[in-house]
Amino acid sequence: MTDYPEKPKRDKQKQKPKPQSQNVRTLVNLSIFAVIIIFAGVFFFDNSDSPEVEVTVVEVETLPPTATIAPRNALERGMVAVASGKFAEATEHFTDALEENAAPLDIFMLRAYAYYRMGDYDAALADYNRVIEADPNHDVQAWIGKSEILYRLYEQSERDTVLKEAFLTATQTVQHINKTNAEVRTSDHLLLGNIFYEVEEYGLARTQYEAYITKTENPSLDVIERLGFLQTLE
Questions:
Q1: Which domains, and CATH codes, for the chain?
Q2: Is there a contact between 179 and 136 (Cβ–Cβ < 8 Å)?
């Protein structure tokens, strides 16, 4: 076994901060799954015999803060609740939406994100698992969301079994990314790098940290320090 230099220890006071509402994380890729009806009459269809609802895909950040037209269904109400930071309310609406929507995996992704923002990691994890089990290729954010929740549970408990599960999920996530050429965010690289670093899979950690630094203008000082350590292992 190779004797590595002592790695910098994880500073519990510098744990990765929880995401802000403007940097959507679930865990859900809102460029695909944040389905919301734009609150303007130009986007609404006239009432007809068809039960289908026309939707426009937008990011929550683009939701007009002064929108006043009332949402018409559970999905819309859930998205308005998310945009307003009312995540507990959003989970109730998304649960209702599951009964009336023909694309349940998208709704599970949205509900998982809302559960995550509430801090209900078990419920969020269950929804991500539902998506992955139904269709592993549905969206890479299901894998990333699951990885992040497991890592947060490890930070809370410091249980090796949880860290091992986070590592296995992160490994599957990278395999999925490489297989599908999925686009991931800067923060996703940071998350995966942290998981690999924690289990001392330094080659994998370095790859993710280097991708993170390439994509960000202001990299974390912790990551710079860790990369310096990893370079001593060459």
A1: 21-135 (1.25.40.10), 139-234 (1.25.40.10)
A2: no
CA end-to-end distance (rounded Å), the chain: 15
pLDDT (tens digit per residue) in 134-178: 999 999 999 999 999 999 999 999 999 999 999 999 999 999 999
Instruction: List the one residue out of 62, 91, 59, 13 whose CA is nearest residue 185.
Output: 59
Residue the block writes with tokens 């992040």 = 148
Going by C-alpha positions, the residue among 221, 189, 216, 219 that lies closest to residue 205 is 189
Q: What is the pTM of this model?
A: 0.70
- Are the beta carbons of 61 and 83 closer than 8 angstroms? no
Q: Can you tell me the distance from the alpha carbon of 202 to that of 229, in angstroms, rounded to the nearest whole number?
A: 10
pLDDT for 12-35, tens place per residue? 544 444 443 333 333 334 333 343
- 3-class SS letters over 135-156: CCCCCHHHHHHHHHHHHHHHHH
- 212-232 pLDDT tens trace: 999 999 999 999 999 999 989
- Is residue 83 within 8 A of residue 113, CB to CB? The reply is no
- What residues does 35 pair with on adjacent strands? 57
CA gap 123, 121 in Å, rounded: 5
Q: CA-to-CA distance for 5 and 1, rounded, in angstroms?
A: 13
Q: 137 Cβ partners below 8 Å, 6+ apart?
A: 176, 180
The whole-angstrom separation of Cα 161 and Cα 90 is: 32
Give the Cα separation of 56 and 49 in Å (integer). 20
